[in-house]
Write a structure and sequence with these properties.
two-stranded antiparallel sheet; mainly alpha; about 5% strand; single chain
Length: about 230
């Protein structure tokens, strides 16, 4: 039990980066909107392949510019977005987009810059079963040892322990959720591809993301001080 309690602050810190993405998406599109899709008629289909699941929360991908739009405007236009890279080559694109709103001094102490999308997808998918694989997290471990205090022959988490999380809090304070949402939309096909690689080709990652957000929002706040059993 003690090891579980000691790991919890680290797991929650890893979740901060993911929740920033998740909550931004959730409150931008889904809080006041219900999406329903009719179930496809599969009576005439061969039942050897899994039936696609109805998408509950579809992502609206950024629209590509058309020739008509280009001709109709006389104002200078930003350069078109480059095509999406392959999933296993996407780290550089993710970092370039993040650097548009986050400086290296805030980002590098926190983010693991390899396999970023796959790490985010795997971690989000494992947040509800409480089987978080720490080797797949997109953020670096919290530095230093856990700080505790002793009271009445019991061990509690010290208030000083929060100082270990300063780089993570600094990053969250500097990031605009709208920027993270925009990156998520631009790169969503890669998030979806990574999610399918986890084993279910019919699953829709954004549906899973909203499910995890709802789970996290229902998590009760711990009673202070936190006892380490």
């Amino acid at each position: 039990m003690k090891n579980t309690e000691q790991r919890r602050p680290w797991i929650l810190t890893a979740g901060l980066w993911l929740v920033l993405i998740a909550v931004g998406v959730y409150y931008t599109w889904f809080r006041n909107t219900e999406h329903t899709n009719p179930t496809a008629d599969t009576d005439s289909q061969i039942q050897t392949a899994p039936e696609p699941k109805p998408i509950r929360y579809p992502i609206e991908l950024p629209k590509a510019e058309t020739d008509t739009q280009t001709i109709a405007t006389t104002s200078p236009q930003p350069p078109p977005e480059p095509p999406l890279p392959k999933l296993f080559e996407s780290d550089q694109r993710v970092l370039e987009l993040l650097h548009q709103s986050i400086d290296n001094e805030s980002l590098l102490p926190v983010l693991i810059p390899q396999h970023i999308i796959a790490r985010v997808v795997t971690t989000i998918d494992n947040l509800t079963p409480a089987k978080l694989a720490t080797n797949a997290l997109p953020v670096k471990p919290v530095p230093g040892a856990i700080q505790v205090k002793h009271m009445n022959d019991r061990i509690y988490l010290s208030e000083q322990n929060s100082k270990r999380y300063s780089p993570y809090i600094t990053l969250l304070e500097k990031v605009e959720s709208a920027d993270i949402v925009a990156i998520y939309r631009k790169l969503y096909p890669l998030f979806q591809e990574s999610y399918k690689d986890l084993g279910d080709p019919t699953a829709y990652f954004n549906d899973r993301l909203v499910e995890v957000i709802d789970h996290l929002l229902e998590t009760p706040e711990p009673t202070l001080p936190i006892e380490l059993v």
